[in-house]
C-alpha cells in the first residue's frame, strides 16, 4: 500500500482506481468501480462484515480457515 502512494500511480478519490498521473490522460471513473468503492468506504457495511466474519469464525469450518490464515501470516513474517 505504501509503495503505491510513493509511485506515480495515485488512487482516484471517486472510484479508488490507480490513476497514472504521468500519462497526462484524463481519468474516467467506471460507475461500477465507483459503486464498489463507495460501498467499501461505508463504515456500517464494514462493521456488518466484521461481525459476519466473527460469526463465521465461530463455526468449525471458520476455525479451520482461521488456523490456515494464522499459519499463512507466520510463514510470511
Ligand atoms: Zn476514478
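Sequence proposed for the structure above (77 residues):
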Amino acid at each position: 500500500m505504501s509503495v503505491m502512494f510513493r509511485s506515480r500511480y495515485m488512487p482516484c478519490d471517486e472510484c479508488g482506481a490507480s490513476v497514472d498521473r504521468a500519462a497526462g490522460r484524463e481519468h474516467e471513473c467506471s460507475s461500477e468501480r465507483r459503486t464498489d468503492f463507495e460501498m467499501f468506504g461505508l463504515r456500517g457495511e464494514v462493521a456488518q462484515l466484521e461481525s459476519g466474519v466473527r460469526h463465521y469464525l465461530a463455526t468449525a469450518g471458520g476455525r479451520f480457515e482461521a488456523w490456515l490464515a494464522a499459519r499463512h501470516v507466520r510463514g510470511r513474517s
